[in-house]
Amino acid sequence: MDILWSPWRMKYIEYITIHKSEGCFICEALKTDKNEDRLVVFKGEKVIVLMNLFPYNTGHLLIAPIRHVPSIEDLSKEEITSLFLVVQTSLKMLRKALKPDAFNIGINLGRVAGAGLEEHVHVHIVPRWNGDTNFMPVLANTKVIPEALKDTYRKIIKYANYIEE
Ligand SMILES: [Zn+2]
Predict the structure, then answer these.
(1) pLDDT per residue over 33-45, tens digit each?
(2) Cα of 25 from ligand 1 centre, angstroms
(3) How far is the CA of 71 from the centre of ligand 1 (A)?
(4) Is 154:98 a contact under the CB 8 Å cutoff?
(5) Is 122 among the residues known to form the active site?
């Protein structure tokens, strides 16, 4: 995907360069206390929420179990329950913070299905607004992200107390 205006892109390139050797960026985000730098929105007992550094749209979140496992088949009932409670309550947070008109929610399992990080399963939540694109963002080649990531982070984090697991 080409992004027309992306001041965070250099940071992203630095980030993946620094962290590639360490492996999983979700596990790395779990270890850090630099939540704003890593765009961590919520850390619970079983689930973490972070903003996607490479968003399809403003406010694109990743919801992941704490455990580093590749598929939802590897999760316990308790983890599945927590994961979807966090999906549910993250929607409430995003509605309050960003007032989207709609959402795409999905899970990519495996590289050919589009998973950028296939070892650690995660749910994507992509907020949508009327007129943001004529195509599904996963199919679009070019997309303008109107707000920088940190600005969006600061809007979202004010409502992070909506999240429950
Ligand atoms: Zn991991």
Answers:
(1) 899 989 999 999 9
(2) 7
(3) 12
(4) no
(5) yes
Question: CA–CA distance from 5 to each of 27, 38, 64, 72, 86 (Å)?
Answer: 28, 20, 28, 34, 30
What span, in angstroms and rounded, lies between the C-alpha atoms of 124 and 106? 5
Question: What six digits make up the tokens of 58?
Answer: 């403003």
Catalytic residue among 60, 120, 122, 124: 122
Q: What is the pTM of this model?
A: 0.81
Cβ atoms within 10 Å, residue 137: 16
The answer to whether residues 54 and 115 touch, using CB atoms and an 8 Å cutoff, is no
Residue ranges and CATH numbers for the domains of the chain are 2-162 (3.30.428.10)
- Whole-angstrom Cα distance, residue 162 to residue 122? 20
